[in-house]
Amino acid sequence: MSIFEYNGSAVVAMVGKNCFAIASDRRLGVQLQTIATDFQRVFKVHDKLYIGLSGLATDAQTLYQRLVFRHKLYQLREERDMKPETFASLVSAILYEKRFGPYFCQPVIAGLGDNNEPFICTMDCLGAKELAKDFVVSGTSSESLYGACESMYKPNMYYHLFFYLVKEPEELFETVSQALMASVDRDCLAGWGGYVLIVTPTEVQERVVKGRMD
Question: What GO terms describe the biological role, i.e. biological process, of this protein (predicted)?
Fold first, then answer.
Protein backbone atom coordinates (compact mmCIF):
# COMPACT_ATOMS: atom_id res chain seq x y z
CA MET A 1 0.00 0.00 0.00
CA SER A 2 1.21 3.49 -0.87
CA ILE A 3 1.80 5.80 2.09
CA PHE A 4 -0.63 8.23 0.41
CA GLU A 5 -3.38 5.61 0.79
CA TYR A 6 -2.63 4.80 4.46
CA ASN A 7 -5.39 7.05 5.89
CA GLY A 8 -7.63 7.28 2.81
CA SER A 9 -8.91 10.63 1.51
CA ALA A 10 -10.95 12.42 -1.13
CA VAL A 11 -10.74 16.16 -1.87
CA VAL A 12 -12.32 18.10 -4.73
CA ALA A 13 -12.54 21.80 -5.64
CA MET A 14 -14.93 23.12 -8.30
CA VAL A 15 -15.38 26.54 -9.87
CA GLY A 16 -18.67 28.42 -10.26
CA LYS A 17 -19.45 31.94 -11.43
CA ASN A 18 -17.58 34.22 -9.02
CA CYS A 19 -17.64 31.45 -6.42
CA PHE A 20 -16.10 28.06 -5.74
CA ALA A 21 -16.75 24.89 -3.79
CA ILE A 22 -14.23 22.74 -1.95
CA ALA A 23 -15.23 19.43 -0.41
CA SER A 24 -13.70 16.41 1.29
CA ASP A 25 -14.74 13.14 2.85
CA ARG A 26 -14.74 12.75 6.67
CA ARG A 27 -13.18 9.31 7.19
CA LEU A 28 -9.88 8.84 9.00
CA GLY A 29 -8.68 5.29 8.71
CA VAL A 30 -5.61 3.15 9.24
CA GLN A 31 -5.73 1.18 6.02
CA LEU A 32 -9.08 -0.65 6.18
CA GLN A 33 -9.79 0.15 9.85
CA THR A 34 -11.93 3.25 10.46
CA ILE A 35 -10.65 5.44 13.31
CA ALA A 36 -12.85 8.54 13.06
CA THR A 37 -15.76 9.81 10.98
CA ASP A 38 -15.37 13.57 11.55
CA PHE A 39 -11.82 14.19 10.34
CA GLN A 40 -11.08 17.62 8.86
CA ARG A 41 -9.21 17.86 5.55
CA VAL A 42 -10.27 21.33 4.39
CA PHE A 43 -8.66 24.26 6.20
CA LYS A 44 -9.21 28.01 6.13
CA VAL A 45 -6.31 30.31 5.25
CA HIS A 46 -8.41 33.47 5.14
CA ASP A 47 -12.03 34.34 4.27
CA LYS A 48 -11.57 33.81 0.52
CA LEU A 49 -8.87 31.14 0.49
CA TYR A 50 -9.01 27.48 1.54
CA ILE A 51 -6.75 24.47 1.22
CA GLY A 52 -7.64 20.78 1.21
CA LEU A 53 -4.93 18.30 2.15
CA SER A 54 -5.23 14.66 1.12
CA GLY A 55 -2.67 12.00 1.94
CA LEU A 56 -1.06 11.13 5.26
CA ALA A 57 -3.12 12.77 8.01
CA THR A 58 -0.21 13.66 10.32
CA ASP A 59 1.73 15.30 7.49
CA ALA A 60 -1.39 17.23 6.45
CA GLN A 61 -1.75 18.75 9.92
CA THR A 62 1.96 19.57 10.14
CA LEU A 63 1.97 21.20 6.70
CA TYR A 64 -1.12 23.25 7.52
CA GLN A 65 0.53 24.61 10.69
CA ARG A 66 3.58 25.69 8.66
CA LEU A 67 1.34 27.38 6.08
CA VAL A 68 -0.59 29.28 8.75
CA PHE A 69 2.72 30.47 10.22
CA ARG A 70 4.01 31.66 6.83
CA HIS A 71 0.72 33.37 5.97
CA LYS A 72 0.67 35.26 9.27
CA LEU A 73 4.20 36.49 8.61
CA TYR A 74 3.05 37.68 5.17
CA GLN A 75 0.07 39.51 6.74
CA LEU A 76 2.34 41.26 9.24
CA ARG A 77 4.82 42.32 6.56
CA GLU A 78 2.41 43.24 3.73
CA GLU A 79 -0.65 44.23 5.80
CA ARG A 80 -2.96 42.31 3.46
CA ASP A 81 -4.11 38.78 2.77
CA MET A 82 -2.28 36.57 0.34
CA LYS A 83 -3.70 36.12 -3.17
CA PRO A 84 -4.55 32.54 -4.13
CA GLU A 85 -1.86 32.47 -6.85
CA THR A 86 0.77 33.68 -4.37
CA PHE A 87 -0.34 31.14 -1.78
CA ALA A 88 -0.13 28.33 -4.35
CA SER A 89 3.46 29.34 -5.11
CA LEU A 90 4.24 29.37 -1.36
CA VAL A 91 2.81 25.84 -0.91
CA SER A 92 4.76 24.65 -3.95
CA ALA A 93 8.01 26.11 -2.60
CA ILE A 94 7.52 24.59 0.88
CA LEU A 95 6.85 21.14 -0.63
CA TYR A 96 9.80 21.35 -3.02
CA GLU A 97 12.30 22.35 -0.34
CA LYS A 98 11.38 19.11 1.46
CA ARG A 99 11.64 17.00 -1.70
CA PHE A 100 14.22 14.56 -0.25
CA GLY A 101 11.96 13.84 2.73
CA PRO A 102 8.58 15.04 1.50
CA TYR A 103 5.30 15.71 3.21
CA PHE A 104 3.07 12.90 1.96
CA CYS A 105 0.30 15.33 1.00
CA GLN A 106 -1.39 16.37 -2.21
CA PRO A 107 -2.86 19.85 -1.67
CA VAL A 108 -5.93 21.31 -3.35
CA ILE A 109 -6.02 25.12 -3.21
CA ALA A 110 -9.14 27.18 -3.93
CA GLY A 111 -9.66 30.90 -3.55
CA LEU A 112 -11.14 34.10 -4.92
CA GLY A 113 -8.59 36.46 -6.44
CA ASP A 114 -8.82 39.89 -8.09
CA ASN A 115 -12.37 40.84 -9.12
CA ASN A 116 -13.52 37.72 -7.23
CA GLU A 117 -12.21 35.50 -10.00
CA PRO A 118 -12.06 31.88 -8.75
CA PHE A 119 -8.66 30.18 -8.69
CA ILE A 120 -8.11 26.47 -8.13
CA CYS A 121 -5.06 24.25 -8.39
CA THR A 122 -3.60 21.05 -7.08
CA MET A 123 -0.06 19.71 -6.85
CA ASP A 124 1.87 16.56 -6.05
CA CYS A 125 3.96 16.04 -2.92
CA LEU A 126 6.95 17.75 -4.58
CA GLY A 127 5.05 20.93 -5.41
CA ALA A 128 4.46 20.50 -9.17
CA LYS A 129 1.37 22.64 -9.78
CA GLU A 130 -1.59 21.65 -11.93
CA LEU A 131 -3.90 24.56 -12.74
CA ALA A 132 -7.48 24.14 -13.95
CA LYS A 133 -10.48 26.27 -14.89
CA ASP A 134 -13.18 23.77 -13.91
CA PHE A 135 -12.24 21.34 -11.11
CA VAL A 136 -9.30 19.63 -9.41
CA VAL A 137 -9.19 16.48 -7.30
CA SER A 138 -6.80 14.56 -5.06
CA GLY A 139 -6.78 11.56 -2.73
CA THR A 140 -7.45 7.85 -3.02
CA SER A 141 -10.77 8.56 -4.79
CA SER A 142 -9.11 10.64 -7.54
CA GLU A 143 -9.96 8.38 -10.46
CA SER A 144 -13.67 8.10 -9.70
CA LEU A 145 -13.79 11.82 -8.80
CA TYR A 146 -12.42 12.72 -12.23
CA GLY A 147 -15.14 10.65 -13.89
CA ALA A 148 -17.97 12.01 -11.74
CA CYS A 149 -16.85 15.63 -12.12
CA GLU A 150 -16.39 15.28 -15.88
CA SER A 151 -19.95 14.06 -16.26
CA MET A 152 -21.62 16.51 -13.84
CA TYR A 153 -19.67 19.77 -14.21
CA LYS A 154 -20.87 22.64 -16.36
CA PRO A 155 -19.49 26.20 -16.53
CA ASN A 156 -20.81 29.18 -14.59
CA MET A 157 -22.86 27.30 -12.03
CA TYR A 158 -24.20 29.91 -9.65
CA TYR A 159 -27.46 31.18 -8.25
CA HIS A 160 -31.00 29.93 -8.84
CA LEU A 161 -33.65 32.61 -9.24
CA PHE A 162 -36.71 31.76 -7.19
CA PHE A 163 -39.57 34.20 -6.69
CA TYR A 164 -37.20 36.94 -7.91
CA LEU A 165 -34.92 36.39 -4.93
CA VAL A 166 -31.29 35.39 -5.35
CA LYS A 167 -30.66 32.23 -3.36
CA GLU A 168 -27.43 30.54 -2.39
CA PRO A 169 -25.42 28.67 -5.06
CA GLU A 170 -27.47 25.48 -4.76
CA GLU A 171 -26.48 24.22 -8.20
CA LEU A 172 -22.77 24.23 -7.41
CA PHE A 173 -23.38 22.64 -4.01
CA GLU A 174 -25.51 19.87 -5.51
CA THR A 175 -22.97 19.13 -8.23
CA VAL A 176 -19.90 18.93 -6.01
CA SER A 177 -21.77 16.98 -3.31
CA GLN A 178 -23.14 14.40 -5.75
CA ALA A 179 -19.73 14.02 -7.41
CA LEU A 180 -18.05 13.48 -4.02
CA MET A 181 -20.65 11.02 -2.73
CA ALA A 182 -20.73 9.01 -5.98
CA SER A 183 -16.93 8.75 -5.94
CA VAL A 184 -16.30 7.76 -2.33
CA ASP A 185 -18.95 5.04 -2.62
CA ARG A 186 -16.50 3.35 -4.99
CA ASP A 187 -13.52 3.72 -2.63
CA CYS A 188 -13.33 1.65 0.56
CA LEU A 189 -10.62 3.95 1.99
CA ALA A 190 -12.72 7.15 1.88
CA GLY A 191 -16.26 8.24 2.62
CA TRP A 192 -18.42 8.23 5.77
CA GLY A 193 -20.01 11.54 4.86
CA GLY A 194 -18.66 14.71 3.31
CA TYR A 195 -17.78 18.28 4.26
CA VAL A 196 -18.64 20.94 1.66
CA LEU A 197 -17.72 24.63 1.63
CA ILE A 198 -19.29 27.09 -0.82
CA VAL A 199 -17.38 30.40 -0.92
CA THR A 200 -18.86 33.50 -2.58
CA PRO A 201 -17.60 37.13 -2.44
CA THR A 202 -19.98 37.88 0.43
CA GLU A 203 -20.37 34.67 2.43
CA VAL A 204 -19.10 31.20 3.24
CA GLN A 205 -21.50 28.28 3.57
CA GLU A 206 -20.40 25.16 5.42
CA ARG A 207 -22.41 21.97 5.14
CA VAL A 208 -21.98 18.39 6.27
CA VAL A 209 -23.30 15.81 3.82
CA LYS A 210 -24.46 12.43 5.07
CA GLY A 211 -23.17 9.41 3.18
CA ARG A 212 -23.03 5.64 3.40
CA MET A 213 -21.45 4.37 6.59
CA ASP A 214 -20.72 0.75 5.78
Answer: proteasome-mediated ubiquitin-dependent protein catabolic process
